[in-house]
Protein 1
Amino acid sequence: MPSQRQDGSAYHLPNPQYEAGLTRVERGTPMGELLRRYWHPVGLASDATSRPRPVRILGEDLILFRDGGGRAGLLYPRCCHRGTTLYYGKVEERGIRCCYHGWLFDAEGHCLDMPVEPGNGASFKHKVRQPWYPVEERYGLIFAYLGPPEHKPLLPRFQVLEELDDGEFVEADDQGIGTGGGPVAPCNWLQHFENVMDPLHVPVLHDGFSGTQFVGAMGIVPDVRFETFALGVRSYQVRKLDNGGTLNRISETVLPTVRVVASPRLTPGRCESIGWTLPIDSETYTVYTAARVREAGVLGRIRSRFGGRLWSELTEREHQDMPGDWEAQVGQGRITFHSEEHLGASDRGVIMLRKMLRTEAAKVAAGGHPAGAAFTAGSEWIESSAGNWFASAQ
Ligand code: FES
Ligand SMILES: [Fe+2]
């Protein structure tokens, strides 16, 4: 924290800085390497088709496709022959064929055909490999692992999405539920993720300041307690309700980017959805969501509305008059300046989450496995106590 001169003049502000080790996601950075030890969603299952689809994740541009046999593939876009992009390739039964000289690559980058090399490349094709990443599908999403192959963990299973009540099924959404605005937010992923451990912004931003954006009870200032657990940080929020009852709301952050947050409209009971904060790069993120639902299309309809309109339909004055999460988080800048912060008691959850991320990044840098990386069957199960728990007056 910079020392502040008595007069407080902006003239004396030092050059602002952000904590790169906590925020930047490129390969070789501390956080980039921590993030690369986990699986991340790269698309809906329906995004992998016979049409090559460009995707960007952790600052890397890749091509997603699904071969004729139904297998999804995620390849580095520049063809390993002479570098044109596989975006213009054609997907076939066994893989994707580059448009330029027709080299054919399967979902793991093996070259299967070189039509204009002698003998269709019989003696050459085994010597090249298109760079690739493994993918797995679950919950209607495609997950990718961009880390060192020898450290690839099992794809997690979330209790929230595995234990279904009667009539429920799991549905996925890619429209950035929880960003407060559009699907792709122009700021650092951590500004969104650490907001999950900031329950005291709720009665201010989402109620007092902007009018009631969720439901009235969320405007009550809660008593909050935070705790670190094996996989992340959890908050316990207790609200004394007007009817004499109590609302115990529990929210969780699971490393490295997972939100386990029950409905802010206070549907009673256990949390119904998981949100993955996906860093597209260091200055842009999106959110993928999967939820237990009873009706198809429900997720698409719960998008935030302000006086009946979508965030994108609001005027600039309305954004100023009733800001929400998008305005507050994008308003912190592309990557917030940590050097200018003054953290208080209400920021304890944010401090704990940042500390845990730093610790786990250091563990990876020292050659260890990070929290929650599971390698034996059964250990990839992630329990949750998140939910809205109501107790009536005694
Ligand atoms: S550049 Fe792809 S086959 Fe030649
Ligand atoms: Fe919020």
Note: Residues 348-365 form the longest helix (18 residues).
Protein 2
Amino acid sequence: MSTNVVIIGAGLMGLTTAYWLNAAGASVHVVDSAPGPGLGVSFANGGMLTPSQANPWNAPGIANYALRSIGAEDSPFLIRWAAFPRLLRWGIDFLMNSRQSSYRRNARRNFALGSYSLARHREILAATEIECGQARSGTLQVFRDLPALENAFAIADFLSRDGLVYQRLDRAGLLAREPALALGRSEHVGGLFFPEDDSGDAYRFCVGMADYLVRAGVIFSYRTSVNSLEMRGRRIRAARSDNGPIAADVFVIAAASRSSTLLHQLGIKSAIYPVKGYSATIRGFGDVTDLRIPLVDMHRKVAITPLGDALRIAGTAEFTGMDESIDAARVAMLLRDAAEIVPGLEGLAPDRITSWAGLRPVTPTGFPLLGRRGRNLFLNAGHGPLGWTFAAGSGRIISDLVMHGRHELAGHELASLAISAP
Ligand SMILES: Cc1cc2nc3c(=O)[nH]c(=O)nc-3n(C[C@H](O)[C@H](O)[C@H](O)COP(=O)(O)OP(=O)(O)OC[C@H]3O[C@@H](n4cnc5c(N)ncnc54)[C@H](O)[C@@H]3O)c2cc1C
């Protein structure tokens, strides 16, 4: 008899977990409160698949930066007063992880998961022929000051021992790699090129994956909110939903920031904080820029990614609780920052721009909550700013743990670090 698995969440994590479990012979039922797949934080993200961005946000020195960000409306990193007091406990852990040793350790395990995941992602695309505008053009990080560039070289150098491939670029090298940057107003002093990164549209992937899984026999229940998990002894018996209880042998929580609510009810403290980010999408951008390589401007932390016929601009990190509303001033700031790199964005008719906000589920380590948590409960949540990058590998790890009690990364040098739960 096949193992029955209920997955809570039809975002990138839930769908990739469903894919691997289905391939391994499990009977899978995916439940989501939304009316379709990929409508949560996976909907309009930056589109980058970047093991290269393995270093977590909380680099040494973040404490000063974080303090300056409280109430700083013009900063890409904004902490609103409303975020307190819930932020306090999480924030202390976040700062504790900014020590050089933790930072480097977390960067290494992110890189291990990111590289593993990108390989699994390419396998999925080859096997399913899902069309999501996947491009293998590498990515760029561009810098406006030399000390920041030197810092980035140092961390890339450190990760190159684990296999990160990168090229150092001075300004001339940068413009030769991406000539469209010459038109920008921002004086980039140089950058790094990561030839092994990819990009693609996460929402198109989710829709393609859900279609594929329906054909493969996976059951989907949309518009179905899971309100709690019903225990019998030490096992979970059913997911209690709006539409009644859903029983299974195994349960996977892949509900991003909302995973915390379900976990708290079970007495499990989880350290996921929702950090709001924004994106703006411009369709048919040929008249706006010739940019071809997805890039991140590290000074203003803005990502610009060509995704098929669309240009996606993404960024900002706002600590404001579970608030998903779109603040027009934040979108305007994002577009202003991007326009310094892509001047064609200035004066663009508003009806060409689609704005969006989503809550990145961020842990204090920058590494997701990935693994077994209880007899028949598994977690696949908390992938923060790297969920598109981490999705295919995280799903595979959970599937391997459910079906075989072990996972492939176990042979990795970072095995003891690679899997964590709250
Ligand atoms: C602005 C921005 C840019 C980003 N750029 C990138 C990038 O370039 N590269 C990258 O790798 N990552 C990026 N990310 C991060 C990435 O998008 C996320 O980490 C990833 O989408 C998380 O996927 P998920 O499946 O965990 O969450 P989701 O997609 O949110 O899926 C969770 C699902 O669970 C459902 N759910 C929640 N609670 C319940 C419940 N109780 N019952 C039923 N259903 C429930 C929700 O409806 C949702 O559909 C970005 C994020 C943002 C905000």
Note: DSSP finds eleven helices and 20 strands in the chain.
Protein 3
Amino acid sequence: MVVAKDKVVAIDYTLRDSEGQILDQSDAGRPLSYLHGAGMIIEGLESALEGKATDDQFQVVVEPADAYGEFDDGLRQQVPRSQFDDIEDLEVGMQFRVNTDEDEFTVVTVVEIDDEEVTVDGNHQLAGVTLHFDIKVREIRDATREEIEHGHPHGPGGHEH
Ligand SMILES: [Zn+2]
């Protein structure tokens, strides 16, 4: 069996940036389980997995455009510090959910604070970052009809509900 649409795939992964620093990884013995073709994982990684077999091990480099997008200066914004008056211990690195539209929200990160203004950044933390993945395919199985309807796998490493 190979990785294809409507297969549930379990992978071990390590994600590094271009300097070799580890950004994220699956825990030993607890692979990430996802439904292939459902857009659950970033596009560049999903297409690299297509056609791979169990125990295949490979590296893939995903450019920002196929991952979390390019860094957008327009998403940096200065807001009056008074808007954060009710936040205790405001500091760089804090994240807030802000509504961009009625039902939509985005997460912004505080990147700079001075006496009058706070600079927040709405870029994804990995925007503009080229991603280097080490992947090992652990398991491939057919998705159940229910999993396909839900758009995610169930069971170990997947949705528990
Ligand atoms: Zn479900």
Note: The chain has a mean pLDDT of 93.
